[in-house]
Design goal:
Helices cover 57% and strands 5% of the residues. With 621 residues, it is mostly helical. The strands form two sheets. Strands 2-3-1-4-5-7 form a six-stranded mixed beta sheet, with helices on both faces. The structure holds guanosine-5'-triphosphate and magnesium ion. Magnesium ion binds next to helix 1. It comes from Terriglobus roseus (strain DSM 18391 / NRRL B-41598 / KBS 63).
């Protein structure tokens, strides 16, 4: 067997002295492990998950050697169909501004489905950049009794090839040697002289690979086949999905919420002790009421939010989320929403910002815009603290099915359902009006089920906690301090005003007439204003205004159940998120859509909240 490296084609980018490539791109189909490999090579922590379209932008990272690796969205061919694919192809062609031209390519494919990628392999090799073909998922291939002889595949493709497992870290030395330059690669990787089975012929070569014994397709995953009978069943599938959701909310209220309450009570007790040791009353009030208690009140919701993130991560990384998108398409696709929209929409349960970015994977412009416009209706994790606070304060903890289901969990589910219904209603409306058009075809990759990786779950917990703590320690803390000062100013003879006579109260008086028809008060209005900066700050603002970490008790006396229901509905439907507005502006490249979205959502939220309040009053709630 020849171990000569193919002569470099004329188009190969110049390499620095020493032979190492400066900038290397990770190209390949979706969901084959490109980002897993990127994270392993660079030590970064980009999102990895078991469905197609997780990465939607380019991301660069450095190797220890100083070389740059660029992770890219997945592509099926070099003719892009969606915005994310355009980015990948542009980077490969050296046309993407702010990304350096690639010197070499790591072409990653999934070894358990090699037959599906031959066209892409051919197209990428034909680009002429030095390319190492990485056949990933070696572990799964072996487990399912498949086989690949990388040397024989390299001979057929006319390109260096290595069999790896990005998640287990096997085969990495081949990459290191390739990246260090052609001589090392030649020593390691057997490659045919150019002119063998050249790239454009690859589409027919998979048969060749099989015939020559270089590749044996693995058996189907039995678990995937068996479980999908239930998961995708027209009746049992949706029931199963509902059961998963119910279980998640029940865990949230039975375990995570009580843990959070205990945490904030404990923090509050510490705050009181510290406050008692500070001789100056005003300094003590600023530190304890203005800073500590506000922060403690929000921190108490960290376990609830993390519980939600663990559930979403497990559903995504197991491969179930793609099935949930199919179920959603079957049951809700009638509103004119393309099935491709459901994956971004489901990820909006974590946060609308990445979900709106994920719409880049939707090929149709109309479907993409519709998804962007309705994504903020999905219940993001920042709404959770407010829901949890109000539900715990107003809805009795009654058991409905023993320990399996409670009234509070059901109420939470209804709020999630309300957001979803508003999203579907809006999609239908758009389909009739601004975004008329033929429904586009829905095709989705159903990945094999995988055991969710503990590392992925722990990283999701770590990353989310970091984001949350940073938010609490910066934005919410500053906002809360501002609320405290404004609710105690002006000072008279060095003494703070009563809250009722403060600047903030005057501001609240201005908005109160708007809120009265919803059964809401000045304090609630002020907290809703702060929600524009960060939704969670409703909790800390109320805690500061009522002077207690648990604002629920004071709220109960102030707005009653009818007001609380109106507030929940308003909060479920209102836009109130500057970060989302900014990303909608960026992704639609216009101010028109974020403004239309904000106006529409505010009007809808107000009207629905008003109707809720009136109905609740009519029933003497
Ligand atoms: N068994 C196994 N699973 C792997 C391996 N590498 C990656 N995975 C899993 O494959 C799934 C997809 O991984 P990603 O790294 O997100 O794939 P990607 O190619 O970046 O996907 P997109 O960004 O959607 O294009 C995840 O569930 C990973 O845990 C591997 O070597 N073996
Ligand atoms: Mg990726």
């Amino acid at each position: 067997m020849s171990t000569l490296i193919a002569p470099a084609p004329a188009t190969v980018a110049p390499r620095p002295a020493g032979g190492a490539y400066r900038t290397v791109g990770l190209i390949g189909p979706p969901n084959v492990g490109k980002t897993t490999l990127f994270n392993r090579l660079t030590g970064m922590r980009q999102k990895v998950s078991n469905y197609s379209g997780v990465t939607v932008e380019h991301r660069s990272g450095k190797l220890k050697s100083g070389q740059t690796v660029v992770d890219l969205p997945g592509v099926w061919s070099l003719t892009p169909e969606s915005e994310d694919q355009k980015i990948a192809v542009n980077v490969l062609m050296g046309k993407q501004h702010n990304v350096a031209k690639l010197d070499a390519v790591l072409l990653v494919v999934d070894g358990t489905q090699l037959h599906r990628y031959m066209t892409l392999i051919g197209q990428v090799l034909a680009c002429g950049l030095p390319t190492l073909v990485l056949i990933n998922m070696a572990d799964e291939l072996t487990a399912r009794k498949g086989f690949i002889d990388p040397l024989a595949v390299a001979r057929e493709l006319g390109a260096p090839t290595a069999l790896i497992s990005a998640s287990r870290g096997t085969g990495m030395d081949a990459i290191t040697r390739f990246l260090s330059g052609e001589h090392a690669a030649a020593a390691l990787l057997p490659v045919l002289q150019a002119g063998g089975n050249a790239a454009p012929g690859c589409a027919t070569d998979c048969n060749n690979l099989t015939k020559t014994g270089a590749y044996r397709r693995p058996n189907h995953s039995r678990f995937t086949r068996e479980f999908d009978r239930w998961a995708l069943h027209p009746v049992i599938g949706p029931i199963l999905c509902l059961l998963f959701i119910m279980a998640a909310f029940q865990i949230m209220f039975r375990a995570a919420y009580p843990a959070g309450t205990a945490l904030s009570n404990w923090l509050s007790a510490i705050g009181a002790t510290i406050g008692a040791h500070i001789p100056n009353a005003i300094v003590s009030a600023i530190l304890v009421d203005g800073i500590w208690n506000g922060v403690a009140s929000v921190l108490g919701f960290l376990p609830t939010i993390l519980c939600m993130f663990v559930v979403i991560t497990v559903l995504e990384d197991s491969g179930y989320m793609a099935r949930a998108a199919v179920i959603a398409d079957r049951t809700m696709g009638r509103v004119g929403l393309n099935g491709r929209s459901f994956l971004p929409l489901l990820s909006a349960y974590a946060c609308a910002v990445p979900a709106i970015m994920a719409t880049r994977a939707i090929p149709s412009k109309k479907d993409r815009l519709a998804t962007i416009l309705i994504a903020p209706f999905m219940t993001c994790s920042a709404r959770l603290p407010v829901y949890a606070l109000l539900i715990a304060a107003f809805i009795p903890a009654r058991k409905l099915l023993g320990n399996a289901l409670g009234l509070q969990a059901i109420t939470m589910m209804l709020l999630y359902a309300l957001g979803l219904l508003a999203a579907l209603f809006t999609a239908k409306l758009l389909n009739f009006s601004m975004l008329k058009g033929q429904p586009s075809l829905f095709a989705i990759e159903l990945p094999n089920y995988r055991l969710p990786r503990l590392r992925t779950i722990l990283l999701a917990i770590y990353d989310r906690s970091k984001v949350f703590l940073k938010q609490v320690g910066t934005v919410i803390l500053v906002l809360n301090l501002a609320v405290w000062f404004l609710s105690h100013m002006p000072f008279h003879n060095g003494q703070p005003s009563e809250v009722g006579a403060s600047y903030l109260a005057h501001l609240g008086d201005l908005i109160e007439p708007l809120l009265r028809p919803l059964g809401l008060t000045r304090n609630v209005g002020i907290s809703l204003l702060t929600a524009f900066v960060a939704r969670e700050s409703v909790v800390s603002t109320l805690a500061t205004l009522y002077g207690s970490v648990n604002a629920g008790v004071a709220l109960r006396a102030e707005i009653g159940l009818a007001g609380a229901l109106a507030l929940l509905v308003f909060f479920a439907l209102a836009m109130q998120c500057t970060a989302t507005l900014a990303v909608v502006r960026r992704e639609t490249n216009s101010w028109k859509w974020p403004l239309v979205q904000m106006g529409y959502m505010t009007v809808l939220a107000y009207a629905a909240s008003f109707v809720t309040y009136r109905i609740a009053l009519a029933f003497h709630v």
